[in-house]
Model the fold of this input.
Amino acid sequence: MSATIPESFGNFDLLKRVKLDFTDVTVSKWRSRTTGLSVVHLDYEGKLIKTSHRWSKPFILSFSSHYQWILCCCYRNLVFMGSEKYPYKGVLDNLANRGFSNGTNAWTDTDHTAYTISTAGEQGFLQLLPIYLDHILYPTITKAGFVTEVHHIDAKGQDSGVVYSEMQGRENTPGDLMALNVQRLMNPPESAYRSETGGLMEALRVLTPEQIRQYHGTYYVPHNISLIVAGKLSSGTLSLLDVVQKQVEPSIIEHDQGKGPHPPGWKRPFVETPSANRPPIKETIKKTVEFPEKDESIGEITMSFLGPAPSAFLERRALEILGTYLTSSAAAPLNKEYIEIEQPFCGYIYFGEDTCATQVDLAIYIGSVPTEHLDNFDAKLRNSFQRIIKEGIDMERMAMVLNREERQLRSKLESSKGDTFSGSIITDFLYGAADGSDLKDSMDDIKQFDDLRSWSSESWTSLLQKYYIDTHPVIILGKPSAGLAETLEKDEKARIIQQVEKLGPEGLMKAAAELEIAKAEHDRPIPTDMLTSFPVPDVKTISWIPVQSVQEIGAGRVSQRLASSSTDLEKHITGDASPLPFFVQYDHVQSDFVSVHGIFSLAKLPSHLRPLVSTYLSTFFSLGVKRASGEHLTHEEVANKLDDETVSYDVGLGLSNSFTDTFRISIKVETARYETAVAWLKDLIYGAQFDKDRLQIVIAKIQQSLPELKRSGDNVLGSVWAELVYNNDSTSRAGSILPQLEFVPKLAKRLQSNPAEVIADFEEIRKHLTDPSGVRFSVTGNVFRLEKPRSTWAKHFGESLPAIELSPVPIASDTLSEAGKNPAKKAIVMSLPTIESSYVTHGTKGIQGFNHPDYAAIRVALEVLNATESYLWVFLYQINHEGPCDSFDPKRYIRGSGLAYGAYVSLDVEAGLLTFTLYRSSNSLDAFHEAAKVVKGLVDLSIELDQTTIDAAKSSIVYGVTKNVSTPGRAAIVSFSNQALKGVARTHQIDLLEKYQAVSKDDILAALEKYFLPLFLPSSSVAVTVTAPGKAEQIGKGLQEAGFDVEQRVLEVDLNEIGADRELENESDSESESDSDEEHR
Done:
């Protein structure tokens, strides 16, 4: 195709075309000689056309400004509030939903903002492209949009707004506090790299719309934009250029912005501005940054160094590989010294990179560090670097790391080609040569691997010396502070009181009126013909990845359902040896790789052992193994061999967050190593050696990680919710953060006092895992290329898994508590000092089962509520409604006035629960009440459910289904999950598309009334809120007034108990001090 594409098209000139020899991706970079707009197309076969940060194919905007620390994020949100040609809030996402998409998105980094969308097929994408660019280049930026999206004060004197809610949930977290201090210490005062791009709350409270307009006029110009598109277009790149040439360029020229790629006076952000001045760090800088946390036992560290130039691609790759070599597994040098010990110095060490002008930043992130080690950790780590330099690099291990990285790259190219190269393309736009001459070298990963294979040990140690010894770092010690948690709570309460007093009754009334005016402006309905003029694409235009399946349930077993079967694949399987006595399903897709999965039922596991399963998971790849051949491997040999022989390996509960009362092991290899994967599966399950010393080390790591995990509002919410709705037979409940906070310290003590008893518990878990009645295996990948697809299993598992009746797959509904079976009136409010906003889940009974007749109507109803710019978005992201319900206007009201940063309703058909969730909510009570009004209003018809919304919901579902099976690996595992676990057809989700189209408005309203209304009635629902201490009492009172029986809880830690635990550990260590010291040397 490249030979037929001209060197120019309309205003656009081809700057660079790159075709690498290890992938079918062709990248072409174009630039308009008239406007300077840049267009990059990654052309490859794929089911989605994407400009999405997840797949990193965004509209990219680069900018540099002393004001960017607050303006870029605020402007980003205002883009979606309407444009010159489409001056209606929400029109962009409404159109996107109609175009086989799930709406638009955006994110802001220090040096760019990305606006993203992903669609199933090209029709919707090309239709939406000029509309999206009109919003980016020519947004309305109204005072009303600022009030609802950025910041306002409500009638009670509380601060709200979407951006404000986001920063309220982030600003005082350890990661954000430490990152901001790094940025400001690494860069001089005039540098834009010092910015907090989200905007600090203090600055948001004084920001004005005019500042945002000025910022937009300076940096949102066509010569500062790159449009990056990934996926196959039927007419190739020219169809993309044609849309931009005919529908985008004229509008830019009309706005007098056709001034070429580099207008007079324009300075390329970062590259040609003061931010490019990145002077060396003259001396080591160390600073302690406190963050709010009542548990003061565990902190964090960041060490940042200046690295090579952005264009030093080989050296940057080498630093990435060096970090992997040092930290990738239990056998890695730093992990052995700092983590894989009885009293770990930290929970993890991670080497990262932030791309900047002149020199990239090299960061080392160290987490779960006992606070007594914070001050001296950096010196100890640099001493370790010097010792590694002196001893040299293990070149055999380095070769293994390089080979594995290449295998993982090739595997990634099969599933996400655009994502693989996104970082290189974004960096090229921001910092690369303007003519595109850096692009090929930045993308040629395989050549980089080949070049690095020629490096000597001295080459690697010289690199370590150059960047981590010879340069001075900025070191940030993140230290937890119980006092700061209390101070922040008191200060915020005092600030609100002062704000209310300063405004007075008149000022509060004025603020409330300003919000109402803003909501009224957003109330203008989008003309129906504007929406319907955007045709919904035909589902038939989507092609699906072919999957061939053969399911063998085991010789002598009688299947309760008919699984699909491929005649050709069946011949290939049955031609290899006799039928197996156990369950194996083969799902063939075109691939260079194959994955084997073991699914083991935990249904018969005694309840007292379920809290131990999380530890069992953590030990799974960290123990010595006795192989079936009789060979004994240490835990380091296991780690090294797995890394050397596989693409990836993983262990967890269930599959895709479902079936969490099963234990899953997955191993991915090149097809030639199929038997290697099966052999590892057998040996890891049956041959793991439960050694006291190794168990002690793993448990110590887990215990040290717990304080960091319980700082997350999401983690704590999930744990409290699981405790409420599941019983003691739920493995996921037992493994959640709150039970583990109590269980793991006791387990550590028990291992010291009675190791034989603990080891016996591990052995009992293994005995239940390997019960033949609950074992299922899956093979996904290129099955036709496997010479012995069936007999390989017989060789390794034939004697271990005799013929026995197959038990049903355990499902979540089997482990519901009484509150989960009959949810009513119960509410728990948990106070968490590390957060400033609220995380909430309300739940009620839903439908249970994977083939329920009401599912299609409920699924469409969910999309009607959840879709971007649909009801929950409009009502919950824009509401701060104070008036009576009869004045409630359906087009006016959770996000824009900051009641929540995220809100959605979800259905768990496995458990049979319907839930409403709020994420980073600044006012969770109002958000809950407004969501209830939305559903009630739809049911009683006071809020209109129009056909355009229904059409958009159905269209958006198509995108979700397509994404779920958009790669060979996804399509194959969905086939297995459908048939082996859910008991539905291989193409179940695709088959449902026809049923979704048949869902009527009356069906949706009936589903809302029957299933969704009970979600907002205390008599038929339960609730959990995790919130800041200063909000707990108010939220509890509000829930009680609503009709809930409220239980207040506080997540605290007994510091004396932590001290006692450490003393016990120290006493235990002192008994074998000489052995321990010898091991640490």
